[in-house]
Amino acid sequence: MTKYYLGVDLGGTNIKAGLFDEDFQTVQKLHKPTHEEAGPTEVLNRIWACCQQLMAQEKITSDDILAAGFGIPGQMDVEKGISIFSPNFTDWKDVPVAKWLQDKLGQPVFIDNDVRVNLYGEMAFGAGRGHRNVVLVTIGTGLGAAVLINGQVLYGASNSVGEIGHMNMYRHGRPCACGSTGCLGRYVSARGIVKTMQEKLADGQTSLVGEWMSQGQELTTKLISKAVAKGDPTAVEVFKETGELLGFGLGNVINLFNPETLILGGGVSAAGEPLFKYTRETLAHHSLPVAREACKLETAQLGDEAGMVGAAVYAGQKVRA
Fold first, then answer.
1. Is 54 helix (H, G, I), strand (E, B) or coil?
2. Burial tier of 205 (Cβ tally within 10 Å: 0-12, 13-18, 19+)
3. Which Pfam families does this entry report, sorted A to Z (predicted)?
4. Which of 29, 70, 193, 261 is such that its CA lies 20 to 30 A from the CA of 292?
5. Helix (H, G, I), strand (E, B) or coil at 41
6. Is 39 in the same domain as 60?
7. Which of 114, 18, 109, 130 is closest to 66 using CA atoms?
8. pLDDT score at 162
9. Do the strands 75-77 and 82-85 form a parallel or antiparallel pair, or are they unpaired?
10. What is the mean pLDDT of the chain?
11. 249-252 LR contacts (CB < 8 Å, sep 24+)
12. Do both 185 and 70 map to the same domain?
């Protein structure tokens, strides 16, 4: 009889859930709004509703599930299955995600950081295949990373390896939810890019973006990217500043971890070369030459499925171990 894995990527905006066979091929998948503002219990109920819907679509029960994996942003105790803190969620503190869902499902449930499960996905089926030294950087609502060295995913003393979004770039910069100021993720992220544009418009700079906003369009990175494509000087300036700052951050990553592959993923990576050309230029002058030449910059291949399939792969590794 066929057995299955559940894989869930929990985001601040959407829950992305998938049902996978024993070879981690997608059987069913769905997206559901997170409604994080409603608090942890409502978010957990919505996750469980996703799992129930996936099983119902395939006409299976919990008995057919081998394990479930969940990718969650923020700090966590992986062994205890507790999500300690996530800046993307309201009133989210010490949430016992694994136990709560395991009690519902009746099968093993494992949690990990959302970027690490993306790495597991890219290692299994995407840009990380065949490599042993990889750093995956995701640029979405926030900025995070996951690190594979000599074939081993790094976790650290508090499961915090890869928090490059909290690399301090400005001593007295924008305040961050972590309690510090000037963190890289406050500039290089969807929120950060939007904030940079808002600051320029507030300073009196003109932009197509401002015109489009006056017509009722929402300020997003996609809107800024659209303005960049039309050669809008202010939008280009936003991308240049963001791309250069990312280059300085990635230069530190290359110097520290010496990866053979550096994968760029997350929703903002869709901006592509108009943003990353400034990153490449900065890297060329601000990272160790030997380490830089050994490292290839790649784009993530799995898109928004990486977290789902990666969470399932992670659960499979844990339950088999």
1. helix
2. middle
3. ROK
4. 193
5. helix
6. yes
7. 109
8. 93
9. antiparallel
10. 94
11. 249/164, 249/167, 249/169, 249/184, 249/188, 250/137, 250/279, 250/283, 250/287, 251/282, 251/283, 251/286, 251/287, 251/292, 252/164, 252/167, 252/287
12. no
- 295 and 308 co-located in one domain: no
Q: Rounded to whole angstroms, how far apart are CA atoms 224 and 210?
A: 10
| Angstrom distance (rounded) from CA 244 to CA 237 | 11
Looking at residue 303, its pLDDT comes to 87
Instruction: Indicate if 221 and 255 belong to the same structural domain.
Output: yes
CATH number for the domain that contains residue 311? 3.30.420.40
Please give the pLDDT value at position 224: 97
Amino acid at residue number 203? D
pLDDT tens sequence across 96-123? 999 999 999 999 999 999 999 999 999 9
Amino acid letter for position 235: A
Tokens of 59: 């006409």
User: In terms of domains, do 84 and 177 share one?
Assistant: no
- Looking at this protein, which amino acid is placed at residue 232? D
Structural domain for 135, as ranges: 131-300
Residue 285 and residue 220 share a domain: yes
Q: What is the pLDDT of residues 187-211, one digit of tens each?
A: 999 999 999 999 999 999 999 999 9
- How far is CA 201 from each of CA 105, 195, 197, 205, rounded to the nearest angstrom? 50, 10, 6, 5
> What pLDDT is stored for residue 142 in this prediction?
86
Is residue 239 located within the same domain as residue 172? Answer: yes
Cβ contact 307:6 at 8 Å: no
Residue 125 lies in a domain: no
If one counts every other C-beta atom within 10 angstroms of the C-beta of residue 153, the result is 18
10 and 153 co-located in one domain: no
Domain count, the chain: 2
What pTM, to 2 d.p., does this model score? 0.91
β pairing state of 4-10 and 65-72:
parallel
Q: What is the Cα gyration radius of the chain? A: 20
